[in-house]
Amino acid sequence: MCCCRMPNVNGQLGYRWNDPTAAPGVHPMNAPEPDKLDILLHDEPGPAAGLDSHSHHYRLVRRDGTVLLLVRHGGGDERFRLSCTGSLLDAFAVMDSTARYWMFNAIYHAHSDAARESREKETMRWRTAAAEKRIRTRKKRGENAVKSGLLRV
User: What is the pTM of this model?
Assistant: First the structure.
């Protein structure tokens, strides 16, 4: 059970869970680290009001006129460029923290899904080319993988 209404437990900032078999513990907030030249615009840890979401932590930063979304989740850190206009940044500034978090979450998952789909399409193109004998494939010795190369025509 999340007890984020009291995010400071014994002087330690973070998320608190109560486990009936163990003493209460605190999981510290784990934000993505911006680079030295990044200017922090918004820092959004997972909200606890209504729908809890502590698995992703987002930061919006500006670097040399470019706006980047930094994400930390269980798989590590990611950063990608947003094509932002001034009006979009103004809209982010007007939103409350929870709405901004869910907007960053929607942007991140749209980006993540598009990247996954493009990898899957490229993999299928190469597999189809191998099946149609348009590329040469050789099994790598001692591995469950193949080498592929273009056929010279």
Answer: 0.72
3-state secondary structure of 89: helix
**DSSP 8-state code for residue 2:** B
Name the β-bridge partners of 123. Answer: none
Whether 14 and 37 share a structural domain: no
Count of CA atoms in the C-beta half-sphere (13 A) of 89:
16
47 with 13, same domain?
Answer: no
Q: How far apart are CA 32 and CA 70, in angstroms?
A: 6
Distance of CA 152 to the CA centre of its chain: 41
Which residue range is the domain that position 11 belongs to?
1-30
100-150 pLDDT, tens digit per residue, is: 999 999 999 999 999 999 999 998 998 898 889 888 888 778 887 777 665
User: For residues 11 and 36, what is the distance between their CA atoms, to the nearest angstrom?
Assistant: 28
Residues 36 and 56 both lie in one domain? yes
